[in-house]
Amino acid sequence: MHVTHRLRVAASALLLLAAAPAAVPQPAAAAVAARPMESLNRGVVAVRRSSTEVLITWRLLGLDPDGIGFNVYRSTAGGAAVKLNTEVLTGGTNFTDSTADLTRRNSYYVRPIIDGVWQPASESFLLTANHAVEPVVRVPLRPGGPIKYTWVGDLDGDGAYDYVLDRQTSPQTVEAYKSDGTFLWSVDMGPNSTDQDNIEGGSATIDVGHWDGATVYDLDGDGRAEVALKVANGVVFGNGATYTGGQTNTHQAIAILDGRTGAPRATAPMPADYLSDGPMGARFAVGYLDGVTPSLVAYSKNRVGSGDFNLMMTAWKFTGTALTRQWKFLRGDRNLPDGHNTRVIDVDGDGRDEVAEIGFVLNGDGTLRYSLSDEGVVHGDRWHLADLDPSRPGLEGYGVQQDNPSGLREYYYGAGNGNLLWTHTGDGVADVGRGMAADIDPRHLGMETWAFDGVYNARTNTLTQATGPWPHLRVFWDGDLGAELFNDGKIEKWDPATGGVARQVTTWNHGAANVGTQYPTLVGDIFGDWREEVVMTSAAYDELVIFTTDRPTATRLYTLAHNPAYRNDLTVKGYLQDHHVDYYLGNGMTTPPRPSITYAGS
User: Fold this and answer.
1) How many beta carbons lie within 10 A of that of residue 98, not counting itself?
2) What torsion, rounded to 10 degrees, do the Cα atoms 65, 66, 72, 78 define?
3) Are 302 and 277 in contact (CB under 8 A)?
4) Judging by DSSP bridges, how do beta strands 173-177 and 543-547 pair with one another?
5) 3-state secondary structure of 524
6) Residue 585: how many other CB atoms lie within 10 Å
7) What pLDDT does residue 14 have?
8) In a 3-state reduction of DSSP, which class is residue 570?
9) For residues 536 and 12, what is the distance between their CA atoms, to the nearest angstrom?
């Protein structure tokens, strides 16, 4: 296939960029106020990395001072704890223990020190006697049906992420578990969840196709996460109450549930503008549209006959007692291309989040900021918003196209204003079903973008490899600043010199099963240091099989979950895609600024 390129920079500027300047420090967002975010604990985790070694990792928190250090302690079989390190640890937040008696149970914790003052000890993590050599944490679940998605949030306020998951049964159910696997509650999604068509499902159907209709976040700032659900008549909540608020079974509502009990704390009807065309599928996200407090954002669609789709977007505020709608946006007949993932992120650096789709962006007040339709962008399956180019101020976007009549395959643009920076077009019409953005080539500053026509350095639009790895999901795993990749049950490292991949983890060797053919239920930094976990299930769906790194690293970064953009992304499913921070994370990066946050409930 013939591919052409269009790069909207002067030739002289292109020569300067080709010199690959060092990354420039990016200014912290001019936030309206510090955002209240989760008060997380240290997330200590230990895995047996060999017959003689244990890797212990823990969180550096978003507001930890620069000079904070740590000591690591081990208690064997309940005995007195001993300090394992000889010098206070001020590098990567991980430690390799090679002196443990691994035939006995061992419990690990860390203790921070700030300005010479010892802080309270962290929570402990127990590694069982004769534990398997595997990079895995296992969370037991009740027996049940297939699981598509897992969400995390601190449901009980203890600083650890708990788990909320679906069961793809008929009717569907939603279950919540504490971080250790203690069962909390279940919601029966009722008779209106039995139609599980992935385009036009029932009024209470969740988690089919690119719909989710559920998310988890501390929406009222009390230090405990709530669960938001799309509901309809017949849903039975965790406290046994049945929702009967819809005038008909087609009418839908949003319910905010207590994370500890599954009881409804508030409900509000979804707008009925398009009700005559049937119930709407929904995709939920969370962001700080005013820069100060979180809002629930709902992307909702239904089909007009067998043709076009109605699109409605709404934003909601939960006060702790009431759920109120902030705004409603109807696409109508405007040419505003959407896709299969929503990103809520501050695109212009003013501290307030915008709501972004693959081809348009809404301001935090629900007004249209810009559309890429005038640039020829149409619907597509995959796209990314991140700091792909650390030498350019602000964020960039990269997307791929599905059956664009112009032959447009890929495009790259400034996220703040939608200005196209380059495009790739080809002969004929093609469905580019996957597209990735990550730093996988340390020879070039900035992230690479790729689909199926070669790997490009996004900053310079330079083709660096004619054939790239399969463009599926990124995972930070081995501890260097480049990205690893998750592909169909495997964690892999791509070699840009050869174009080959090296296998790091084979998940099915540890009893894990993909969702469908390729997907985990979640990829994200949910405990340990800044590296990411891959959450899968056992083939019997009776445990979460959570892959966490067994590789030491000297790189020190605060937990990705305390980065506002990344945490927003963790609330969205759709077609499962990567979560990005709002600073450049890759080879040649500078130390990211401390996030402008506070700890909720503290």
Assistant:
1) 10
2) 10
3) yes
4) unpaired
5) strand
6) 24
7) 27
8) helix
9) 49
Question: Which candidate, 202, 200, 197, 262, places its Cα nearest to that of 229?
Answer: 262
Pairing mode of beta strands 473-475, 408-414: unpaired
DSSP secondary structure of 490-516: EEEEE-TTTS-EEEEEEGGGGTEE-BT
Mean pLDDT of the chain: 93
Q: For residue 154, which phi and psi values (nearest 5 degrees)?
A: -85, 90
Q: What is the rounded distance in angstroms from the CA atom of residue 314 to the CA atom of residue 595?
A: 27
> Given this model, what pLDDT does residue 518 score?
76
What is the predicted pLDDT for the residue at 559?
Answer: 98
DSSP H/E element including 11:
helix 11-18
Residue 530 in tokens: 């800044």
In angstroms, the CA 248 to CA 28 distance is 49
Which residues, listed in sequence order, are joined to residue 207 by a DSSP beta bridge?
A: none
Identify the pLDDT of residue 32: 67
Is the backbone peptide bond immediately before 279 cis, with ω within 30 degrees of 0?
no
Phi-psi region of 102 (alpha: psi -120 to 50; beta: other; left: phi over 0): alpha
pLDDT tens-digit series, residues 120-148: 999 999 999 999 999 999 999 999 999 99
Structure tokens at 431: 């469905």
67 CB neighbour count, 10 Å cutoff: 11
* Percent above pLDDT 90 for the chain: 91
Pairing label, strands 597-599, 35-37? parallel
Structure-token pair, residue 156? 């009980």
Rg (CA), the chain: 23
Q: Say how far apart CA 563 and CA 35 lie, in whole Å.
A: 10
Residue 1: pLDDT band (50, 70, 90) is very low
